[in-house]
Amino acid sequence: MKFSLCIGAYPGKDIIYHLEKVKAHGFDGIEYYHWWDLELNQIAREQERIGAGIISTCTRYFNLVDPSKREEYLSGLKETITACKVLGTKAIITQTGNFIEGVERKTQYQAMIKTLKQCADLCEEANIVLEVEPLNGLVDHPGHFLQKSDEAIMMIDEVGSPNVKLVFDVYHQQITEGNVIRNATNYIQRINHYHIADNPGRNQPGTGELNYVHILKAIKNTGFDGFIGLECGYTIDTDQALKNFKENIIKNVNA
Description:
The protein is built from 9 helices and 8 strands. It has an 8-stranded parallel beta barrel, surrounded by 5 helices. It is an alpha/beta fold.
């Protein structure tokens, strides 16, 4: 397993500062969501200098369920793929958008599948994985279309591409459905990337109810060798929190 930080881990600091912290802590990359805010060629040079890079970013638009926005979504995905080629980034995160009131769920689901199949062709050609992310609707994202992992897996299987997978966010799935270890491991073949944060509060692992030693050990035991992203806030100094995470969680996972 490889570990990444997310932009915002050091509030008010830029991407270069974050990349240098990634390197200093011995992590493997950074997630930076709004690639369009960057001067791409400059960041590519800085990544090479520092020896750490952006491992995932986001699509320009988040709407897979509305067919009237399909062309806008695909155009934004093409732009994102072009940016990823400059940055050397191999994963693009997307959400589905909110449920459209007055339209049957099945109709929206089918629209999402049609769009994702077109996305798959683009991503296969570019050798980039599009990661669809279920989000919880109870606390953080009321109305989000895709929330449950079983429906997400059904969708991935229907699209049928090795370049369209899931980012499994442990925090979101704990709120939505629990049963985290079973789902996080049973669906391993369709998961490209994990996000972690504790619950409640969405802060660093070790501050809430989730036993991340057990969760990460279970994921590791599947043979997963992708990224685990710390998409969380910090209740103490970030450097100290990351030190604690390495000493109290990673060390025990690897014991």
